[in-house]
Amino acid sequence: MNHFFHLLTYSSDETEALIFAGVLFVCWNIENLAGLAVNYKKWNHAFLNVQFIITGVLPQFMMGLLFVKTMQWTGRHQFGLLYHLPYLKNPVVLFITAFILLDFGEYIYHVIMHKVNRLWMFHAVHHCDYVVDVSTTLREHPCENIIRNCFTLAWIFFSGALFWIVFLRQLIQITSNLLVHMNCRLPEKADAIVSTVFITPNVHQVHHHYQKPYTDCNYGDVLSIWDRMFGTFRKLPYEQIIFGVDLYMDKKTNGTYLSLMKMPFAKSRKPQKIDS
Prior knowledge:
There is one protein chain. By secondary structure, this protein is mainly α. It has one domain. The chain has 11 helices and no strands. Helix 4 crosses helix 5 and helix 4 crosses helix 6. The longest helix has about 35 residues. The chain is globular and about 55 Å long. The N and C termini lie far apart (about 60 Å).
């Protein structure tokens, strides 16, 4: 077990990057075959979003080291909720329980990012994309990257989640985040079944609608059960969805990397008209 922990500790970043690249490639080509939005320059759009990888690498690496140190500490001291649930001896039951706890934490984080104005301005960099496709997954301000990982670190600390649990959950999370941002939709009958438990492209596209109350709904990360439990689940026909944020609808302003990097530090804005 120690050998397995050591192996994952020093290969987890490479494994996650490989999984991410593989799923991204598959989703990109599915969009090419069955994408809904066709009247935009996909490569130009992706080139803008992929630039956020550059500024996200260092924060992600530094937070990754903190993740490992935190999990080593909670493991040595048997600290965290999961260590006080003695019935969780079965690794499958342990993983499912930890997964649900961590996913609930991600739901809380997402709600906070929408409700606290200054945090929302960082998160709005992701939301103001005027076309939601798989490359939108990459569009995260580096400061939000740090904020998000700090929240995740807190959930890991208080839950006492083990390294292998966090590692496997992140692989599922990576895959899910790419899938739900695809420029595609499930058939309505299939979506009605799948979205009972999981976030789907159909569900997440509503979250990217430019106006409230739809912007403030469907906060779920992997699971949709929290939105249903707390009354934040909504649906909207695709034909009525307009991607973006009503505060930042100017495509020229939101079309450069530098302007997006500076956007959270500007003064709060009033809703703008849609740039036709």
